[in-house]
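User: Can you write out an input/output pair for a complex, sequences first and structure second?

Assistant: Here is one pair. Inputs:
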Amino acid sequence: MNFQKNFLWGSASAAYQIEGAANIDGKGPSIWDIYSNIPGNTFKNTTGEVAIDFYHKYEEDISLMKEMGLKAYRFSVSWPRILPKGKGEINPKGIEFYHKVIDKLIENNIEPILTIYHWDLPQALQDEYGGWESRKIIEDFTNYCKILYKEYGNKVKYWVSLNEQNIFTSLGYLLKLHPPKKSNMQTFINVNHIANLANAKAIEEFRKHVPNGLIGPSFAYGPTYAKSAHPKDVLAMENAQEINNFLWLDVYARGEYSPLTINLLKSIGITINFQDGDKELLKKGIPDFMGVNYYSTATYRHITRKVANEINNQKGNTVQSDVKELLTDKLFVPAKNEFVRLTDWNWVIDPDGLRIALRRITSRYNLPILITENGLGAYDTLEDGKVHDDYRIEYLKEHITAIKDSINDGCNVLGYCTWSFQDLFSWLNGYSKRYGFVFVDRDEESQKELKRYKKDSFYWYKKIINSNGEDL
Ligand code: BGP
């Protein structure tokens, strides 16, 4: 079997990582504007204040997409650009900007995939009631969604509700790596439950306003492996699967938490804060597809089975968590997998893991899947206007092959969005960790002229799209 005829060969981005124009045309501050401006929070104190200036350069970037033959472009809308205070007054310039982007994409036969929330919460809501820590956010988020549905619902078919809820909740409330930089397991689970409710409500409203559209969350899926066939390691792996994966996937796809997840949490003293009506609401949030952001797999062992030489051979610089002990360590412990390679930032490279991810979702939920992110972060060198990124080509080729195999296995994959089209701002790794097909000439020290250069991978992906994945 091959890729379906209308397979969405795409690429992805997020507002804060590309737009820049942080204080322009009525945009309000987001939690990331504030957070990245506090020294020590990001790599070399980099911010997305200018980013790659997509706000002013979107036409140039979209012409490059057209030249490549890109079929889909995933971007996010900045909530505080639409609603500077998170609620209340709408910013017409913000509304207009995304109309222009969407129209330009459509004009060039590129399917827009709109992410509603990619982490840039309006700071005003953080200040007023603690953002995701309060149930008040459900109403504000729903109102924001409704504005987008009414504005763009007749132009945009594919929608992503929350990007990587598992990452923004765990990094924000457990690992102290994202705003608001807290570390408390119970708060994390509370915040996550509120985000589940907001997600479900957004999907419930979507059905009313965009009846012909398709919507799903984007989940950062790291399938779990056992360190060995020792039954205790397998149980640890299954525990990790409950806490790291099913805690989200089951709620999205089935509208309920797995009983095992609930009990495991209980065993470490954590409860899910249910209120009247929550269970019913979660059932209304079943998506049309599961969005998957895939970068790596994770291996686990039982706490009593000590294994020497655990993960660490990192070259790439990043901001690290100072949280040393997690409650979940009692249930599973991360272990090194000697069968996989690592990127310079210590991320596992495992194309088979993508096939495993797609198969596990299909087997457990039987939902269509949209791969909303996948790519290689690497140091690139610009020489005579060229970037020879054969390592990126190899990475993408292996992952596309894995998708093809999973389609043959019986998975229904709607599309593949690489991360990313252009080089962009990495939340914790500045500008030198590059993912794009298009090199953007800026670094941590200087934004230079933000000139765009096509990398070797640009021409390669163009060929893949043109042959619908045949010419791998
Ligand atoms: C995902 C995010 C993206 C992007 C990507 C790469 O978690 O959804 O926004 O940043 O990871 O991550 P990084 O920039 O840390 O390498």
